[in-house]
Model the fold of this input.
Amino acid sequence: MKIVNLKVNGVGKAFIAKPETTLLLALREQLGLTGAKRGCAQGACGSCTVLLDGEPVVSCLVPAVTVDGSDVATVEGLADGDKLSHVQQAFLDGFATQCGFCTPGMIMSAEALLDRNPNPTRDEVAEAISGNVCRCTGYEPIISAVLDAAERARL
Amino acid sequence: MPRVNPIDTDYFKDERKSADFTVIGKTVQRSDALGHVTGRTEFFEDRSFPDLAHVKIHRSAHHHARIDSVDCSEALRVPGVLRVITHADVPSNWYVVLRLIGIEPNDEPVLAEDRVLYKGEPIVAVVADSEAAALEGARRVKVTYTELPAVLDVEEALAEGAPVIKQAGTNYFVYEGHHARRLRFGDVEQGFAQADHVFEWRYSSAPIEHAPTETTGCIVVPQSSGRLLIHSNTQAAFFTLDNTALILDRPFTDLQVKGGTVGGGFGGKVDVMVEPLACIAAMLTNRPVKFVYTREEEMQVSSPRAAERIYIKDGVMNDGRIVARKVMLYVDAGAYSRHSPYGTTKACAHLPGPYTIPNVYADCHCVYTNRTPSSAMRGFGVTIADFALESQMDRLARALDIDPLQFRLINAYRDGDMKAHRKVAEGTALIEVIQRAAALVGHELPDEFRVLSSSTPREA
Ligand code: FES
Ligand code: FES
Done:
């Protein structure tokens, strides 16, 4: 057991973690942030993607005790009140969601991409979300939405 | 970036009312999308409850075996394990989900009794304080078996001398006293005799897993009123409610299902797999209980689309008319019925495809094997049948050296045709769809095919 301090979506949080507590379960069950999903618990689906110090990680594989002092961004922190991020708005307008289960992870992967590369090609978008499984959409509307978000950010 | 959804308004002009199409062709925002993009959509597992207990399952290690003994003593010694549940704890252990629409017999146990019919069949459920303890408990259950010969192929299951795996006495579902769902129209043998050519080909498909990103699961919360509140990701809330109540042997009104938010289903979440055991666990411990499949369970034991094997034999004339079609279709239901008797009927209802053929004969078998039970998946019964039928159409066209679209237009059903199910075809549109598709891809059709319509009477 260890006390873990994190900055989550800009706010300081502390919680007690067992060695086997993953960042995903800490977020979901201890901090009440259920945006990140558990689709496989083995690093294969990307539904649990969050940003750890700006980098996308599959939070189901990150032991919470190893990230003490880190900065974590989740889907809940993207919108500014009612104002959605460009990626969120583009997903909404471009019908890039169906069941919505992959969406939070997908959006976090897309945010990470646009942070480091505001001008991605279609292939670069596909590459950036290649760790995120979507069983509903067929990916095309998602890729288009990310490109659309990049364009909105340039305006 | 608004989407454009053009509607072709040229076809069927006279059948269209001005008030039609107020939604189709327009861009309408999904009502749930805002929740999806903000992470606020509440999936069943996003709810938390104090004192939540967890269910995990000990499953069969064999495809077909007699169970000689079950020993739960070690499981009960795992710290955090609260209870084990065996078939003796299930008030009404045998069920078939389709009993709600009159399908019999109840052929599947919620938990296995003296026999297992597929690898991964649930035998013991373990309830524990934590997921880890439940998993460890399930691992510690000891079952001894005597292996029995397994049947893993539909045609082998029906062959003479095959081991009978089902209690009901046959390795096939019995349709009103018959070995298959049958279709008989005209005289197929006479059709073959009059045909210029007869062709027969075989098609087969493997099981397909839906693999929804959210695995199958539920949380059951006992209410102070004595009722059980079931938060579920089922695609079939009322099927779940009714079947669970029947299994629990409690009135329907004792249960409440909250659902509707499904993280991908595709038909994979219409069986009733997790709710009955979660309810029993909640009743026995008087605690909220979660039972959610691991990804391994979702891949291994959730019902896939059935594997099918389909033989199609056609008699055709040199001018392209199909005069006889005989189909032998086998649906691999796996070990238990689930939704397959219905899927097989759908396959039969879909034959001989959207074509007018005067002589049709089909036997559609719903076959039991020692494989993972299959069930619903997007258009089950129809999808694989269509793959076979349309592959057959292409092969026939090639064999006769006729353009494949023209070949379909020659045989396409039209309004007024008698279908093999003895219903008069009406509202048909296959001809128009083919014509439009041909135009869109620049596939030239001769005039005689361009002027055809679904209401053009067929020459006798
Ligand atoms: S839940 Fe983490 S990758 Fe699937
Ligand atoms: S929208 Fe359902 S998995 Fe992506």
Notes: Residues 140-154 of chain A form the longest helix (15 residues).
